[in-house]
Amino acid sequence: MKTIGVLANCRKPGAPAMLRRLANRAAALGMQLVACDETARAMPGVKRVTAKAFAKHIDVLLAMGGDGTMLKAVRLLGGSDKPVLGVNLGSLGFLTSVTEERLEKALEVLRKGNYTVSKRTMIECRVSRGARRVGSYRALNDVVIGWGMSSRVITLELAVDREPVASYVCDGLIVSTPTGSTGHSLSASGPILHPASPSFVVSLICPHTLSNRPLVISDRSAVRVRVVRAQKKILLSVDGQEERWVGQGDRIEVRRSPRTARFIHLPGYSYFSVLRQKLHWRGSNV
Question: Which has the closest alpha carbon to 46: 1, 106, 15, 6?
């Protein structure tokens, strides 16, 4: 891989220095760097392209930041199957697999091609109002229905493959992929799903019941949520990257996308090692 697309969170304190390191090492290895928008403005000498044409000009996308940057990177690819390698410029981050210290090593691995690639399930979300579809979205992590213009609770009706599940009085609901299970769903007491699991998890946000538990279902199922009662506008958030307002009577359908995201990992990468590190798992002292 000789043509490297670069997307950086330029607001990170260490980003300018990292971009200089990247440019120097890429030049030494004979690799071309391509960027757009804010990242291109922060990298003198880089090949600049438009965001729309970005995926066509690269072999791989290097995302430098945190999980938010990884989500933005997948969105920037617009459904392309170009692989993404994440370099973590922060502390937390389940999606980035390379530390700042290993940036130069990562470029060498890309140059030689001795890496592994994991495919990540994505979901598609359709919003309907009456007989009209008013929105279509794609997500890597999750679709979140909740929050809004007041603190009043809402009532959501859940169905899986058109079979009614339950009606919930709550603050909101999350439909997450295995990749997104370590995101917002985890903070709502959802389970951690291995990235290769053929599953979705449905988690409620502050349900008004003590019997609620997160629901793990097949990713071949269609999840349908209807806003039964809401005395306010409700925010629908897709990967935290796109948002729209929904209201009473609106229907949200979530199903597996035919598209996937592809993540590159360096030799020695372990998903469970990431979990141990990020969640500070220590085990028992026996």
Answer: 6
Residue 271 near residue 195, CB atoms below 8 Å: yes
Task: Kindly indicate the confidence band of residue 198, based on its pLDDT and cuts at 50, 70 and 90.
Answer: very high
Q: Which residues, listed in sequence order, are joined to residue 252 by a DSSP beta bridge?
A: 127, 225
pTM greater than the 0.90 cutoff: yes
| φ/ψ (deg, to 5) at 174 | -125, 130
Q: Cα–Cα distances in Å, from 123 out to 135, 158, 180, 188? A: 14, 17, 11, 20
Compute the distance between CA of residue 148 and CA of residue 264 in angstroms, rounded to an integer.
Answer: 37
Active site residues: 67
DSSP 176: E
Reading phi first (left if > 0) and then psi (alpha if -120 to 50, else beta), residue 130 is in: left
Contact 106, 87 (CB under 8 A): yes
